[in-house]
Amino acid sequence: MDGSCLENLVSDSLLRSFSGILEKNGHTYVPLEEFKPVCAGILKRALAQCDFSIPCEDCSFRGSPSCNEYKKNFVQSIVPAWFAEKLEAKELALCYWDKAASKLHFFKSLEKAAKSKENVWVADYNAIRAEADIAHRILNRNREPMAVDEELLERVLKWSQINEKFQLSPEQKEVVKRALSERLVVVDGGPGTGKTTILRVIYQYYVNRFGEDNVFCAAPTGKAAKRLADVTHSYAQTLHRLLAAEYVEEEDESIFFFDKNNHHPGAVFILDEASMIDARVFQAFMEAITAKAILVLVGDSHQLPSVGEGRILADLIGSGLIPVCTLVENFRQLENSLIVKNASAILHGKNVDFPETEGSDCHLITCGPKEYLDKIGQWVRMVNPDMHLDAWRDMVILCPKKNGKISTSVINDFLQKQYAALRGRSRQVIKVNDDVTRVFAEDDRVIQVKNNYRLPCSESDGTERDGVFNGDIGAVRKVYKYSDLAVDVCFDDGRYTTYPIKNASELELAYALTVHKAQGAEWKNVLLVLPDEYGSLFNRNLLYTAVTRAKENLWILGNMETVNRMIQRPYSDERKTALKIFLQDRDT
Q: Which of 115, 147, 310, 369 would bridge 279 by S-S if both were Cys, CB 3.0 to 4.6 A apart?
């Protein structure tokens, strides 16, 4: 058959590589002129790996000049055909931003886009429209400052600081007052800034003004929501649960009960860990609340951006349009915690300190290339000598990479085997399908890695509710044999659910987590494992994010050279997002 030598060139892997230009980097768009050479490079590598040595006995092109011409035409048609498919499916968009008209214009084909003299973007269809909608809703909100009830605020300030180790400074109290005067505000700060107390003050102030039933606290993940609940002494939930996410089986997708046609009744919303919120989720949230609702976004702009597309917090701050209350470090607090002091040093590109003195909460464990797993085992036995399962609620191992010689997958496998042997548990292989297997043992620490809105679970009070969410962490209580069921899992918040085999791939071991997965959560005891590597992940912001996961004690396993190298390498966020552009251009 003519041209059969090219049959294996257009593989699923090749097409995923094109999609990955946007997806893997969190971009909402990439300029077409930048997208094209990356596609060309992917094709070039694919051609180099394609086997053209197999003779095609029946190919009329064989041995003639037409052979190379056919290959050239075939290869040149791959990207346009891919674009056509993605445009029709509304997975990608070819568009440009018309600043004068404050409007996105879309092209129907790559051919038309390529002929345009505009700065054409290759965009994720849903993400770019989400950013445009967010900007529209923000700009159409009531942005008039509100009067602050000074007497109420003073009472709340006194109540919230009872038995607190650190008191808010006069400057920090002014920040609180300013935050309470805005209908949409960003509160930006890291450890040592009094953010915990300030959050509590803001929550209690609004509860006293609007009533507890009208003030809602939420965060992107279950772990972050639990922490927010602990801070505010209130009920907090994930964003998906706040919007009442539901799974529609007929359409094989999730929808939100609260949306633009059915607004959430809340008067005030406090969203913590805002740096983790991606464009699509934030757009769903913004359309679900009324234009009069008060919104407080709380986060740390120096942490890593969201896993999904967009960088909402950074763009809101960078636009200069949204009021930002920046919390500054309280040096009295820095002096009482080496973790906080070192986090501040990392943030400012300065050297960190690991004095081995009594009472120190920050430690460096030096390690050679072949010693990592042994020293990880020693640390686990030191922190959890009795091997209690519940101790893992307060301890975690963090690592920059999911795969590699020293990575979360390797560490998890190592610890699972150790724990199974010590507890007399058997590790059972669960075959999800022909390509996917999982290995679990009873009492394993596990994490849910994707949202599943239809998996039923029992709440700690016995009520039934559907849904487990990305980032939920718990422990395996039972492993099934010879059944359509895989495991029973009890999550840290008390929910209990049974996983059918088909859903077992949604669980992964969680003795060790990547730093990205750990965002939004804190543990009393944290071991940060840093292999001696030079990849792009090993940067200042990742180190800062990891260090600030520790509440009481931090150990870094590696060497000082790696730590210093990461401190001197600022995070280069080359993520291309449009929210800031939309906000600035429409407000001028």
A: 310
